[in-house]
Amino acid sequence: MSHILLITSSPRGEGSLSARFGTEIAEGIQTRSGGTLTVRDLATNPVPHITPAYIHGRVTAPDARTPEQSDAVGFAQSLVDELKAADVVVLSSGMINFGLPSPLKAWFDHVTWPSVTFSYDGNGPKGLLSGKKVYLVTAAGGVFSEGAYAPFDFQTNYLLHLLGFIGLTDVELVRVEGTVLGPDSAKAAIAGAEAAVQALLANAA
Q1: Cβ–Cβ contacts within 10 Å for residue 82, how many?
Q2: How far is Cα 104 from Cα 8, in angstroms, rounded to an integer?
Q3: Residue 73's domain spans which residues?
Q4: Which of 87, 105, 128, 191 is the most buried (most CB within 10 A)?
């Protein structure tokens, strides 16, 4: 039985296409697998940005940490534990100023943790999380997968890098893009994303 972790982050609320399709994937996998689902909505319940308490606390022995450091490290550990417990991770992100939403960046800043989710050896960095399937949904008003704006996609490529850095390399990507280029483009983008989601769910069954 799979445990699914759904992470949404768009500030668009019910109008978010990234959250819509991410939720569809997560709930579809849950239905097919009979598994459990944890939802972390970073837009309505954002994690704090990291502070000196976290930076210094994570390299300080537990019995030497200040109360503030213990709280900061404990919170980060809870996010890591939640991530480790998942067999399937569904991550959705809507582009904000060419990048990912800041609450999602803050989440990654907590879980990208030396000697906990990644390490270094003689061959360079090594992700310590493995054996998980990841579904990444990214949304953008323009078209960034190809063409003139492709060099300015600091969302999808960065997220793929961060996931891979901590060992999450088995990633299926769904893009929803071109939604501000007119009604026909928006309709085609949504239809294309829906078809991609259904294909993924069929393979996940």
Answers
A1: 16
A2: 8
A3: 3-204
A4: 105
One-letter amino acid of 52: P
pLDDT digits 0-9 by tens, 146-169: 999 999 999 999 999 999 999 999
Tell me how many domains the chain contains: 1
Structure-token pair, residue 90: 């569904």
What's the CATH number where 8 sits?
3.40.50.360
Tell me 149's DSSP state.
Answer: T
Helix (H) or strand (E) holding 162: helix 156-165
**Strand, helix or coil at 39?**
strand
Q: Quick one: which H or E segment has residue 157?
A: helix 156-165
Of the candidates 30, 6, 2, 33, the one whose C-alpha atom is nearest the C-alpha of residue 20 is 6
Of 196, 66, 68, residue with least CA distance to 188: 196
Contacts for 35 with CB less than 8 Å, ≥ 6 apart: 1, 2, 3, 4, 29, 87, 88
- Number of helices (H) and strands (E) in the chain: give both, helices first: 6, 7
By CB atoms closer than 10 A (0-12, 13-18, 19+), residue 163 is buried
What pTM was computed for the model?
0.93
